[in-house]
Amino acid sequence: MDERQREFLDELLMTPSPSGFEANGQRVWTEYVRGFADEVRTDAYGNAVAVSEGGSTSIAVVGHADQIGYIVRRIDDDGYLHLGPIGGVDESVSRGQYVTVHADEPVSGVIGQTAIHLREGDDEYDEIRDQKVDVGADDGESARELVSVGDPITVESRVRELQGTRLAASGLDNRVGTWTAAELLRAVADRKGGPTVYAVSTVQEELGVRGAEMVGFDLAPDAAIAVDVTHANDGAGAPADRGGDIELGGGPVIGRGSANHPVLVDALRTAADEAEIPVQLEARGIATGTDADAFYTARGGIASLNLGLPNRYMHTPVEVVDTDDLVGAVELLAATLDRTAEDEQFRVEV
Q1: Residue 162 and residue 157: Cα distance in Å, rounded?
Q2: What is the rounded end-to-end Cα distance, in angstroms, of the chain?
Q3: Are 93 and 317 in contact (CB under 8 A)?
Q4: How many CA atoms lie within 13 Å of 234's alpha carbon, on the beta-carbon side?
Q5: Is the peptide bond before 174 cis (omega within 30 degrees of 0)?
Q6: If one looks up domain 70-155 in CATH, what number appears?
Q7: Which H or E run includes 73?
Q8: Sequence-ordered alpha helix ranges (H) in the chain
Q9: N or C: which end of the chain has fewer CB within 10 A?
Q10: 10 Å Cβ neighbour count for 21?
Q11: Domain extents for the chain?
């Protein structure tokens, strides 16, 4: 990953973008792609599309901009903020975290944890609705001067270098996907021939692939590749009998089954072989759990595929990826587009 690519990734990671409140993150993304896209547009809810014009066939490469977080459910008379979830938050890792309340002006706080000396020793985790943020307010009146019900909250944004090409951060799910879509567009922007390419940054994936439902209907590409994190089961404590044999640094992960169109699967696997790009395979027998699930049933059926990026400790503040996998995903997608004709058809032969 070169310096410019890394700076862009860090800027995405340091810009909070909870589901339903993605505008700041989308501004970072659209400003970056305007440097090389033929066109950039957004819709009513903030989904963003950047275009590299080509032939009559169109391929969308999609990542989702939103991240999990919390929302202010109520403010009590003691000045504490009661939480609600935004997306699939994990109550076992929320206690004792630094957070930011995204009010009119950012407000710092912590999700309190009773000191171990004062707890009675049970191992149960409080549900999110039973947890509270302490912003240091003396009472409810002073807290309400700072924040309002419905303000979103995110865990403190930070990026940490680990050994080699490993990177830890909150919100890697799925800034790495929107990063890949943008970098793929940059890689093909000056090409001659080939299909039209849409780089897409969707909203509200963590709430049920809602942004992708909007974009899939409106954009109607011939094919869509959703780039999203997938579970690396080589992390500390990962159960050996859950998921596939996915590891950090092993390359991007091609999903097979459910939404994953066999013609697209074959195209990516062939491109990987010819370009000698390492890839991994993952079984998706029911659903991908990504934006691909929305695209493939839109408009009577859009050929879709989930390209995974291995991620340890998903939906925690300390997600871990290997940046070589991100670079490999861009290389794989570019190699696939190089082999795709301007009038390619993506259909199952029956």
Answers
A1: 16
A2: 42
A3: yes
A4: 11
A5: yes
A6: 2.40.30.40
A7: strand 69-75
A8: 3-13, 23-33, 140-144, 172-188, 210-219, 262-275, 292-295, 323-338
A9: C
A10: 23
A11: 3-67+170-338, 70-155
Domain 3-67+170-338 CATH (choose: 3.40.50.2300, 3.40.630.10, 3.90.215.10, 3.60.21.10):
3.40.630.10
Among 173, 251, 246, which Cα is nearest to 205's? Answer: 173
Q: Is there a contact between 69 and 88 (Cβ–Cβ < 8 Å)? A: no
Tens digit of each residue's pLDDT (9 = 90 or more) over 128-171: 999 999 999 999 999 999 999 999 999 998 999 999 999 999 99
The separation between CA 45 and the C-alpha centre of its own chain, rounded to angstroms, equals 17
pLDDT surpassing 80 at residue 176: yes
Rg (CA), the chain: 21
Strands 159-161, 223-231: pairing is: unpaired
SS3 24: helix
| Domains 3-67+170-338 and 70-155 agree in fold | no
The yes-or-no verdict on residue 74 having pLDDT over 80 is yes
H/E stretch holding 63 reads: strand 55-64
Q: Model confidence over 312-341: pLDDT tens digits?
A: 999 999 999 999 999 999 999 999 999 998
**Residue 341 CA: distances (Å) to CA of 54, 71, 194, 328, 346:** 10, 46, 6, 22, 11
Task: Express each pLDDT in 91-133 by its tens digit.
Answer: 999 999 999 999 999 999 999 988 887 777 665 678 899 999 9
CB 235 within 8 A of CB 229: no
Strands (E), 87-220: 98-102, 106-111, 132-134, 152-155, 159-161, 166-169, 195-202
Contacts of 237 (CB under 8 A, 6+ apart): none
